[in-house]
Amino acid sequence: MVRVGTFNFKSGDIISCKIKGYIVKNGRVHFRSDTLGTSDVRGWICHSVVECSGDESPDRYGFEYSWGFHILDGNRLTDGVSDIVPYFPTNVEVKKVTISNELDTFLKLNQFDDIVNPLFYSKVGIFDEYTHYKMSDTDGCIILSSGILPNAKKIEIKLSRFVRQVSTKLNELLSGDTSKIEYACGSMDVSDKTIEKIYNAFVSYQKNDKCTIHFLKGEDILQGYDRENYLYPEGGTLHKSCMIGYPQYLELYTKNPNQVQLAVVYIQDKIAARGLVWTAIDGKMYSDRIYYKHDWLEKIVSEKLRSMGIEFVQEKPIRVVQLEKWEFTYYPYVDSFYSFDRTTGLLVSFGNGMRQLRNTNGNI
């Protein structure tokens, strides 16, 4: 699967898009398999627009023409291609919407985006004036607004009710359209079981069970420093880490599995946040700086770690880690435990409370 904007696509999916300003309806997309999962996905739009005859796709799905393009860093399209969306039948108008990061991530984490996203975008006669969607503080509810709050018109509704009502209306429109069998998102007859699953997962997500922390040890830690494993497009601090792509500097981590772990959060099987977790000589575990794709992930991951009894080391006084192995050719840049006794293998974090008693001019 390849994500473009808010939609996931696979080779053969029916899409609409623009090529050099020309509108392509009911075309198909094809991806070169060996580029999937990379930051430079090679793809083709297969279509019937004579003005957009270009690079020939390996599979044109019966179309006469095709057009090659690249998807860079997950969202940036090249070669004049834009606005790739699932094919919507002619009697369903597509609106431009804004979905909050928290709500969008819930859909991605729980793999509901292919079901719910088309409902946000479709004009079906209800909720058509609402173009902004965000998570509510009320259990199971989302907030729909006609623009940027607080001045815009808004309503609060259960996500399950929204899915049921809009999917029913959309399916009614599709039922009279002969292109329904080719609708990219399939029939919108969302079952009661699926709606219940969405609701229960959403309530759990709202109650701070928003992400699962995975702990990597030993050589598995290297996965967290490989850019190809990261969620794209680039953003936040995750993609800016100076240790990305330098596995030779990370032996201090990989050779000390009893003292160092890497806490990782995945979105769509890609790393969206990571942070080192140290086991100190007091027997307790402490988290280090968190690197994240979305800034709100930092708070969520910190709270999740705290709920597991893992506190942020910079908020504590002196903490010491005793390494089992410490003689290496290269050493990593370390955010907190950066004071290193090469004779004893001790790492020390001084925390935010330490002050140097020199050159203070009497101001301590």
The number of helices is 6
Structural class: alpha+beta
Q: Choose one word for the global shape.
A: globular
> Strand order, biggest sheet?
7-6-5-4-3-8
Distance between the termini: 57 Å
User: Which sequence of SSEs, written as H and E, runs from N to C?
Assistant: EEEEEEEEEEHHEEEEHHEHEEEHEEEE
Helix fraction bin: 10-25%
Provide the residue-averaged pLDDT: 86
Report strand %: 25-35%
- Which stretches are poorly predicted, pLDDT < 50 over at least 5 residues? 177-187
Domain count, please report it. Answer: 3
Describe the largest sheet.
6 strands, antiparallel
Task: Write down the Rg.
Answer: 25 Å
Instruction: Count the E strands.
Output: 22
Keywords:
18% helix; alpha+beta; 364 residues; 3 domains; 6-stranded antiparallel sheet; globular
Short note summarizing the structure:
It contains 6 helices and 22 strands. The protein is α+β, with helices and mostly antiparallel strands.
What is the fold's blueprint, element by element?
Layout: E1 2-4, E2 7-9, E3 14-19, E4 22-31, E5 40-47, E6 65-72, E7 76-77, E8 81-86, E9 93-94, E10 98-99, H1 101-109, H2 113-121, E11 122-123, E12 132-135, E13 141-145, E14 154-158, H3 159-175, H4 192-206, E15 214-216, H5 251-254, E16 260-267, E17 270-279, E18 285-292, H6 295-307, E19 311-312, E20 319-322, E21 339-341, E22 346-349
Parallel strand pairs: 10-12, 18-19
Antiparallel strand pairs: 1-2, 3-4, 3-8, 4-5, 5-6, 6-7, 9-11, 12-13, 13-14, 15-16, 16-17, 17-18, 20-22, 21-22
